[in-house]
Amino acid sequence: MTEPAPTKVDMEKIVSLSRRRGFIFPSSEIYGGLSSCWDYGPLGVELKRNVKEAWWRAMVQERDDVVGLDTSIIMHPQTWVASGHIKSFSDPLVECKNCHLRWRADEVSGNKCPSCGGELTEPRQFNLMFKTFMGPVEEEANVVYLRPETAQGIFVNFQNVLNTTRKKLPFGIAQIGKSFRNEITTGNFIFRSREFEQMESEFFVKPGTDEQWFHYWLEERLNWYLKLGIKRENLRLRQHTKAELAHYARDCYDIEYQFPMGWAELEGIANRGDFDLVQHAKYSGKSLDYFDEETKEHITPYIIEPSAGVDRSVLAFLCDAYDEEPDKDEIRVVLRLHPRLAPVKVAVLPLSRRENLVKVATEIYAELRRCWTVSYDDAQSIGRRYRRQDETGTPFCVTVDFQSLEDEQVTIRERDSMNQIRVPIAALRDTLAAKLEGEDLFVLPPDGKIWKEGKDG
Ligand code: GAP
After folding, report:
1. Position 457 confidence tier, pLDDT thresholds 50, 70, 90
2. How many beta carbons lie within 10 A of that of residue 370, not counting itself?
3. Which atom of ligand 1 approaches the CA of 312 most closely?
4. Is the dihedral of CA 346, 347, 350, 353 positive or negative?
5. How far apart are CA 15 and CA 187, in angstroms?
6. Are 30 and 317 in contact (CB under 8 A)?
7. How many C-beta atoms surround the C-beta of residue 124 within 10 A?
8. pLDDT of residue 456 exceeding 50
9. CA of 146 to the centre of ligand 1 (A)
């Protein structure tokens, strides 16, 4: 992490909003919480699912050259010998001789404890993998690990996927799932935790074409964040120095985001060469090569790996979307989330709880929720309800008022501009569908008169 970021949002605001509105809670909170573990609340789980869904669509479903996979978290222990994790997946750890707090040696300067100023021990390597036992007997022979990355499940299934899909190079295998790392230091909310989710794609290519594919994926991945609304000035690419490169990597760039605490890694894109397939072939004794029909040769593909964190992406999307603006005598807090990511797409708000209004509003609610995640809110003033929806990023509110009973029209109010238009109920679903797709269109009713523009209040 470098340079403090001059962004207007600070992490406390994000943590407080997340807690207050049910995005993210500390894990096991009634017991005092568990360090660096987090629970996603009702809105957080929707946001997180939408992030994963957007990644899966872009990385698997909209491509002919990538297939999906879902592998187990606990793998054969030899996996981690072959992958190099047993030997190399460690961080240098130092301990304070006075207060016994432990720190990552590369995150403290000098040999004084950042907490009490006590003297620190010499660094020793600390393996980050979580160990447990398979079966009832806790002995060395039964040791297994919780995976520290999802990638290895893909490598060990390379032949299975090749045989069952008959894919030709270049092609990729993608997976989303939980990973676990016994990080020495955690923090910055969900930025670094011990249990987190990854979205990884392993793209297998012919050696010699790896450079070109590496650059292709750098651009694709950067564009993914941009298309989902992250501001360009908050993203940058940073190439790893030779000293930083992981043991398997020939080259690597981080996509960094300007988080409130500074620029930090959001996603890594690595050229892993043939390291993984060669290692697993060696340790398993199984062939993991590919028969190139053009050259009639057996080759070991190179791998380009875009590897993103789900939780870090959620944090980046929250930070980037957070906005405050003056609103009369108050401050309007608004999450300007991309509609695809917004936890709730539409809120239906009857102006009052009068029976005839409720009837129309609940019918609209029932119809819209067949298409999207929709909420229904009839508590407090309409202004307050709009603000509640703004704060959780709902792109559109539909207000049913007394006039609706006469003209069969309702008001759509937009989160970002606060503009309001009136549309016939019959055209509401199609209008919202177009708006949620980002089209600035309104579906016209037969008489064409639907416009009633204006701002809140
Ligand atoms: N397979 C390659 C790999 O795992 P990595 O750079 O160690 O590479 C990839 O991790 C991504 O996973 C990171 O860019 C980050 O988004 C996420 N990640 C890694 N460690 C994390 C942690 N402790 N907490 C949250 N996210 C983490």
Report:
1. low
2. 8
3. 16
4. positive
5. 12
6. no
7. 11
8. yes
9. 15
